[in-house]
């Protein structure tokens, strides 16, 4: 196939993947909507108590919800995951054909980085979904991916083309791929932390005599989610350290003759790194576990997003890509 | 023996009194030190570091873009001086930013050095005795067997197989693994210090300079030849510069000729001939953007390029007053390049010219502009000035700017005089003041030469830090106990465990150990 054909295939696959992700999103949204209805107060309270004392995620013990609703929620969840897989396959195809069209790695400008970074979110999610039973994250993950892909196609699209000389380096491959994958993990960790805060609040309400909707009860216990967030972020942090404090400086040394120059992108990468170091410290400090640690994880995620979007669009520096 | 983790925790306990004790100077100092090296302080300092780094990315910085800083100062009459006072134009060298990271690193040293000896002792510690109530631990299994004399021996074997360190007690075994997690954590924090020392070394003893060299010309590595030179604080002068020299033989550049990215650069290459020392043999090198030339610890980089029109100026007496290439600085992505030509030796009037070199000139609505970065239709569009000869002042003058304070612009037919030349063309100046010839043009390259010692140390530090970090984040320290006890003639076996890191998930392992200890045949068992 010629580069033009690859480019056309890519331009077809990416929007199709976006639509499939949106369908997955709708499916997960239905799962949540179904769960909002039924509430069984007494059982919930008991379950929370069991859930926080033992190791089992609370969701697995939940017999008491109306079985029909529960089944329908399960079905919606499964369909959502299936659609996410389908979207992922198309998405992967779109990114690969984009690379073939340009004859290089598909992350030389912001459009390409968006489609690749959102692919990284999908990869991290799909890796962890079976290992840590992460289906409950489907709503957030499909939302983020669909939003990024949609924005990329509508606002950032750049036709495939070769790179400016400064980007001709295998460090581009190493530096950007490690940044993208750790970014995917930051995103998953941030989403888990958001849900952690929601669930922890609901659990506190139940302990005070309140109720919890079935969709929240399907989530694992807050404590288990806290553990999941930690695992995902513990995976991301060394990779980010390597990407922005080893690969980035080595490349900058090759390209610009200095390994660190306080360029805005470098500054924000360092800020991201420091915030996640603070997250890991917070978890090791009594009294900072749980809610405050989760807040730091969310702040870290926003800092990462700002580094990618805000710094490219608002601040000028050496890292501004060709064609946005 | 007591346990590492608890002692470590004790050294960073949050419940420490937060008011200074009334204990005189020593007590007060000790209190301050303990506050500084506490985990909470580390957290706060990390946040301050993150927060403090931000303004440097939003406010223009003198070391990066001094012109933007002076623009900012002109545009913000009240805010500007305040920013200046706060050091916001040079955040990363400001006193307050330095204070944050110095405090952080003092805190870091104060935090990890004591942990080192605690850890060294902890390494030799044996796994502790089981606590009284094993069933209160998060991972707990229990079953009963008949006889059961060899349960503890089997448990020891199984735990050893799972790479636990095992200690036998009366009627119980204690086991622990994951000692390397703390080692990883210590390695990580120490390596950060190492990396910082490497960075500091480079900024003290390194140097960086840039120079613009017209193709065909040479450069030798002395401070005087640089256009711009930034030494580190401990840099001592020419003696610290390796004595190499180089000549730029040729420069090639390719631009995208069509498509949406038309005009984007595709390839630059500068062919150099260089000598490492004045008597060394000449060698050649192709300098590319990502491919610096390394010479005796210094590196030569290709940073940019541009055009240098070659002109000849004759004065009113018919003598050549200037001849040679004059580097013009590109102003946009199509290389519309601004520059000046000075002929201070012209008589009876000195002459000066300023204007644009346009590599691909077209006449637009606002006059001639360049529409492509390569040299498809090169034109020189300039205006001229004359003035009375001035005595030499010896003051250095910019080669890119014309001091027009003592010059008058040429007029023709009551209008400002301008001229446009193609290569090879000559134009006479008004009032028989002389002539200017556009002979052709060369390209120039901007080179950066820099030396940053300590880079290897910084890199090694960071790589070791990552290694330590992986140990610290992925090693899962935990304790396990197996205890046997007689109860109504039957043997009750209890297996329990405790996570010692932030991870959870010991339950599976406890179950697996229990399974391996249970007799294969049917036996009565119970679970809590
Ligand atoms: C540049 C500054 C620092 C950075 C980037 C940093 C980073 C980290 C990271 C990523 C971890 C997680 C590893 C783990 O969980 O074992 C960690 C743990 C730790 N840090 Fe730091 N740190 C810094 C400074 C400090 C300082 C100043 C202290 C002392 C007050 C300190 C004390 C600790 C302790 C005690 C742990 C272990 C927590 C545990 O046992 O889980 N760190 N640090």
TrEMBL record, chain A:
The chain crosses the membrane at residues 6-26, 79-101, 113-129, 136-158, 170-198, 232-252, 267-286, 293-315. It comes from the Bacteria. One of its GO terms (cellular component) is plasma membrane. InterPro entries: Cyt_c_assembly, Cyt_c_biogenesis_CcsA, Cyt_c_biogenesis_CcsA/CcmC. The keyword Transmembrane helix applies. Pfam families: Cytochrom_C_asm (PF01578). It comes from Kribbella rubisoli. It is a multi-pass membrane protein. Its main location: membrane. It is found in: Membrane. Keywords: Cytochrome c-type biogenesis, Membrane, Transmembrane, Transmembrane helix. One of its GO terms (molecular function) is heme binding. Residues 107-319 form the Cytochrome c assembly protein domain. One of its GO terms (biological process) is cytochrome complex assembly. This is Cytochrome c-type biogenesis protein CcsB.
TrEMBL record, chain B:
It is found in: Membrane. Residues 1-16 have a biased composition (Basic and acidic residues). Pfam families: ResB. The chain crosses the membrane at residues 42-59, 95-116, 186-207, 457-475. Its main location: membrane. Keywords: Cytochrome c-type biogenesis, Membrane, Transmembrane, Transmembrane helix. Residues 39-510 form the ResB-like domain. GO terms for biological process: cytochrome complex assembly. Coiled coil: none annotated. The keyword Transmembrane helix applies. It is a multi-pass membrane protein. Residues 1-20 are annotated as: Disordered. It comes from the Bacteria. Signal peptide: none annotated. One of its GO terms (cellular component) is membrane. This is Cytochrome c biogenesis protein.
């Amino acid at each position: 196939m010629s580069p033009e054909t690859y480019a056309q295939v890519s331009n077809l696959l990416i929007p199709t993947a976006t639509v499939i992700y949106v369908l997955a999103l709708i499916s997960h949204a239905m799962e949540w909507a179904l769960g909002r209805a039924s509430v069984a107060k007494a059982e919930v309270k008991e379950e929370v108590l069991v859930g926080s004392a033992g190791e089992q995620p609370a969701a697995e013990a939940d017999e008491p919800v109306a079985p029909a609703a529960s089944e329908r929620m399960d079905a919606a969840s499964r369909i959502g995951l299936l659609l996410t897989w389908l979207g992922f396959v198309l998405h992967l195809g779109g990114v690969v054909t984009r690379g073939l069209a340009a004859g290089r790695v598909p992350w030389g400008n912001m459009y390409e980085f968006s489609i690749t970074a959102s692919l990284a979110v999908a990869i991290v999610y799909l890796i962890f979904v079976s290992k840590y039973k992460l289906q409950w994250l489907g709503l957030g993950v499909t939302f983020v991916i669909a939003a990024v892909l949609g924005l990329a196609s509508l606002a950032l699209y750049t036709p495939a083309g070769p790179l400016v000389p400064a980007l001709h380096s295998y460090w581009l491959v190493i530096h950007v791929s490690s940044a993208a994958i750790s970014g995917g993990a930051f995103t998953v960790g941030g989403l888990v932390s958001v849900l952690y805060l929601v669930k922890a609040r609901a659990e506190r309400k139940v302990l005070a005599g309140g109720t919890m909707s079935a969709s929240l009860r399907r989530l694992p216990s807050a404590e288990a989610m806290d553990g999941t967030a930690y695992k995902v972020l513990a995976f991301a942090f060394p990779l980010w350290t390597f990407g922005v404090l080893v690969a980035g400086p080595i490349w900058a040394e090759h390209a610009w003759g200095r390994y660190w120059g306080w360029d805005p992108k470098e500054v924000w990468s360092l800020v991201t790194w420091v915030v996640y170091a603070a997250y890991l410290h917070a978890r090791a400090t009594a009294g900072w576990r749980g809610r405050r640690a989760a807040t730091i994880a969310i702040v870290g995620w926003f800092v990462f997003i700002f580094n990618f979007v805000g710094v490219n669009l608002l601040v000028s520096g050496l890292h501004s890509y060709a064609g946005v | 023996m007591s346990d590492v983790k608890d002692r470590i925790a004790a050294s960073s306990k949050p419940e420490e009194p937060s008011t200074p004790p009334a204990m005189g100077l020593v007590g007060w100092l000790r209190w301050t030190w303990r506050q500084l090296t506490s985990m909470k302080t580390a957290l706060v300092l990390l946040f301050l570091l993150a927060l403090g780094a931000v303004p440097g990315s939003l406010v223009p910085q003198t070391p990066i873009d001094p012109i933007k800083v002076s623009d900012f100062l002109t545009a913000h009459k009240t805010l500007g001086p305040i920013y200046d006072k706060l050091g916001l134009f040079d955040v990363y060298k400001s006193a307050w930013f330095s204070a944050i990271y110095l405090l952080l690193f003092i805190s870091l040293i104060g935090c990890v050095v004591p942990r080192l000896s605690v850890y060294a002792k902890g390494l030799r510690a044996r796994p502790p005795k089981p606590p009284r109530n094993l069933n209160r631990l998060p991972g707990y299994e229990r079953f009963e067997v008949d006889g059961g004399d060899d349960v503890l021996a089997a448990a020891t074997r199984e735990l050893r197989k799972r790479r636990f360190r095992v200690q036998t007690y009366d009627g119980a075994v204690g086991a622990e693994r994951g000692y390397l997690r703390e080692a990883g954590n210590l390695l990580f924090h120490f390596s950060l210090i190492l990396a910082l020392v490497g960075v500091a070394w480079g900024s003290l003893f390194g140097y960086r300079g840039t120079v613009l060299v017209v193709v065909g010309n040479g450069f030798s590595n002395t401070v005087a030849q640089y256009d711009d030179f930034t030494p580190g604080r401990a840099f001592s002068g020419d003696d610290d510069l390796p004595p190499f020299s180089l000549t730029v033989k040729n420069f090639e550049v390719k631009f995208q000729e069509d498509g949406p990215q038309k005009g984007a650069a595709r390839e630059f290459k500068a062919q150099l001939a260089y000598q490492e020392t004045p008597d060394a043999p000449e060698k050649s090198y192709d300098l590319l953007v990502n491919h610096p030339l390394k010479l005796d610890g210094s590196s030569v980089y290709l940073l940019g390029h541009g055009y240098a029109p070659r002109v000849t100026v004759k004065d009113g007496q018919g003598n050549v007053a200037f001849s040679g290439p004059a580097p013009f600085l590109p102003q946009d992505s199509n290389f519309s390049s601004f520059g000046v030509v000075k002929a201070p030796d012209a008589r009876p009037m000195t002459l000066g010219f300023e204007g644009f070199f346009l590599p691909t000139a077209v006449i637009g609505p606002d006059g001639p502009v360049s529409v492509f970065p390569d040299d498809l239709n090169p034109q020189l569009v300039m205006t001229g000035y004359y003035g009375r000869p001035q005595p030499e002042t010896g003051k250095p003058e910019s080669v890119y700017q014309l001091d027009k304070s003592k010059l008058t612009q040429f007029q023709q037919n009551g209008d400002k005089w301008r001229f446009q030349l193609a290569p090879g063309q000559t134009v006479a100046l008004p009032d028989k003041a002389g002539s200017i010839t556009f002979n052709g043009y060369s390209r120039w390259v901007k080179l950066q030469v820099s030396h940053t010692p300590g880079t290897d140390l910084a890199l090694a530090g960071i790589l070791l830090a990552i290694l330590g970090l992986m140990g610290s984040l992925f090693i899962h320290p935990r304790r396990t106990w197996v205890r046997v006890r007689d109860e109504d003639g039957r043997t009750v076996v209890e297996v329990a465990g405790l996570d010692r890191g932030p991870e959870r998930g010991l339950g599976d392992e406890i179950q697996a150990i229990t399974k391996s200890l249970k007799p294969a045949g049917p036996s009565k068992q119970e679970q809590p």
